[in-house]
Amino acid sequence: MGDYSLELNEDQLQMQKWVHDFSENVIRPAAPEWDEREETPWEIIQEAADIGLYSWEAFTSFFSDPTGITMALVSEELAWGCAGITLAIMGTTLGVSGILGSGTPDQIAEWVPQCFGTPEKIHIAAFAVSEPDAGSDVSNLRTRAVYDEAKDEWVINGTKTWITNGGIDKVPNVHVVVASVDPELKGRGQASFVVPPGTPGLSMGQKFKKMGIRASHTAEVVLDDVRVPGSCLLGGKEKLDARMARAREGQSSRVQAAMSTFEASRPLVGAQALGIARAAYEYSLDYAKERSAFGKPIIENQGIAFKLADMKMEIDAARLLVHRACWMGRTGKEFTSGEGSMSKLKAGEVAVWVTEQAIQILGGYGYVREYPVEKWHRDSKIYTIFEGTSEIQRLVIARAISGVRIP
Hints:
Elements: H1 10-37, H2 42-50, H3 56-64, H4 70-81, H5 83-102, H6 105-116, E1 124-128, E2 144-148, E3 153-164, E4 173-180, E5 190-195, E6 202-207, E7 218-229, H7 237-248, H8 257-290, E8 292-293, E9 296-297, H9 302-331, H10 339-362, H11 373-380, H12 390-402
Parallel strand pairs: 1-4
Antiparallel strand pairs: 2-3, 3-7, 4-5, 6-7, 8-9
Helix pairs in contact: 1-4, 4-5, 4-8, 5-6, 5-8, 8-9, 8-10, 8-11, 9-10, 10-11, 10-12
């Protein structure tokens, strides 16, 4: 039996420092500007591509770590700089996760590199699941995919919403779209499709102006008679037909096109929330040491010191949950108690709470834009909403620990 250790290995420490340096020197100084502009920071994505950070080779390396922790470390360090810019860089990995979660080895080899492109010609990717009437309730998607057997093509119609990188056509954009093939089967009648860049019929609808993560593009994606080759059905038609046949016969199945991606991505979303929380905690700690009131640094007041102690404790507790879920996912351990949802739920709520405490510690300064903590608070809130709300995470956990299909 190998030794048990919570220490990071040398490769992880080097990767962590590399990403942190980029975050400190490139992302954080640019964060206020892109937050105000509410635009995709193409210049920063380009810088990430130039150093090899934004590339399929880098993300393959991150994901191939046998402990499963490296991708979480990268996510946390980037979000420490700016969550919005992080999502502009990392948004592509949502599409990649959709391909990895449902695709065949040949499809993975074909499409994952195309999600990133090259430093000379950057590509991006988007994962399109949520709809105007189906956010948390992904089992009732209205977007339909119909098979045209004569042409061996799938015809997709519908509207997706809240899509990171959705509909962008400034650069080649690989969309991974979850659609219903058999609505009567609900989630078990869904499949994921790759929509190649430039496919006719796919367009951007409304672009949303958001409270936080403003440097990340979020928009509707409209699919109007979008035709994709049969080979763009992730996993292949034979596998889909067999799965739906089992569902019609009443056999149990744990595979759903959307949920297989969420299971992989939720701990990494939690890691981003940790980055925001840690940034706010570190800034508050430094401020409390330097700021004086009533003749002494405010950290010498128990009201402030205990608040900081709780912030540190909650962040570390959330990180342990995130790292455990990442390790379980990478090593094939079954999530028997909703461990992936636990990690995202805890980290998201900790980020909101810690950033609120940071504002309180700074007082009036925490409420104005000249100081970064109000931005961190705005950015943090989405982590209790997207990739499954806090309420949905609790539902997943409750069902897992009870074995009861709680409505």
